[in-house]
Amino acid sequence: MMSAAADEVDEMCASCGIPAGDDIKLKNCTACYLVKYCSIKCQKEHRSQHKRACKKRAAELRDELLFKQPESTHLGDCPICFNPLPLDPKKSAINSCCCKFICGGCLNAWKLMENTKETCPFCRTSVPETQAEADRNYMKRIKANDPIAMRQIGAKRENEGDYSAAFEYWTKAAKLGDAESHNQLSIMYQEGKGVEKDEKKALYHFE
């Protein structure tokens, strides 16, 4: 009975109380989805009462969307919050100082803190001001056998058209267990980009 009553409340305009019907179509508050209204007029009239709860729930929904991820990905976890890194590359970033991928949520939180915008949120090192400086950092990490740095420089060499160098860096990174470098090698063998086409090797690196 309580559930049915709750459903009835959900199907009433939060402002005037009119129930939904064939002639009355209720629309959700698009910010929080907690309440429904029969008209824009009712929504405006109810705004002062609803504002606080709406703002709170809207913030919760943004956080849920930001941190909603599968249990694990081949990219690993964010080293700060330990949530799986997003599959969308636009929702994470890497700094060349430590070669750690940081999720967008932690990056945004770091930027909101005072006096932190020009430093890495993981190792606290100053962020490189130029690409040349970033490349030098990557090369230092490569000397320390960092597969992520090898992957990044491999991608840079591919973009420059130097497929031989890209293949070399990705091969080294793959041997160190970097899954994304294996994927790039698979594509190279499949498309014959810088190497002879080889379906068996493409499948090997893909698996």
TrEMBL record:
What GO molecular function annotation could you give as one example from this UniProt entry?
zinc ion binding
What Pfam families does its record include? Answer: Sel1 (PF08238), zf-MYND (PF01753)
Question: Residue limits of the MYND-type domain?
Answer: 13-54
Does the entry feature the keyword Coiled coil, yes or no? no
Question: Would the keyword Ion transport turn up in this protein's UniProt record?
Answer: no
UniProt domain RING-type: residue ranges: 78-124
The protein's UniProt keywords, in alphabetical order, are: Metal-binding, Zinc, Zinc-finger
- The name under which this protein is listed is MYND-type domain-containing protein
Q: What is the lineage of its organism?
A: Eukaryota, Sar, Stramenopiles, Ochrophyta, Bacillariophyta
